Amino acid sequence: MKTITTTHEIDATPEQVWDVLIDFPSHERWNPFFSSVDGEAVVGQSITITARKGEGDGMSFSPTVLEVEPGKILRWKGKLFIAGIFDGEHIFRLEALDGGRTMLHHSENFSGILIPLMGKVLADTERGFAAFNVGLANEVAARNTSTNSA
To answer: For the chain, what is the domain count?
Structure first.
């Protein structure tokens, strides 16, 4: 098993971060890692995610949503072709901090027989997570600014 874990502090409440995170249609505009996320954050449902070029060369995959706890956790699991080849359990966990801030814990647990051959993909994924985290924080800030100035 291989785990990638990133964190990012966001100047907004977990509820504000959550609203952007699950607004899947908006990901196309602000998300530097996924070019699209289609579906809904509903346990048991499949969503379709397409990676941006350079982050898996535009590959699409359809993970199943495993856990949804608004303002706290979104978790899904996907696989490459069939289970056991290259599987990933993706987790977004939002931790409330003092002062109305949020710590985003963004991780993925990878398993499968291809793990030893996926070094470049995993390194690209870790960079993609970091870019995603910044993009999410920027989108939350932009929405909060437009809400406060309206």
So the answer is: 1
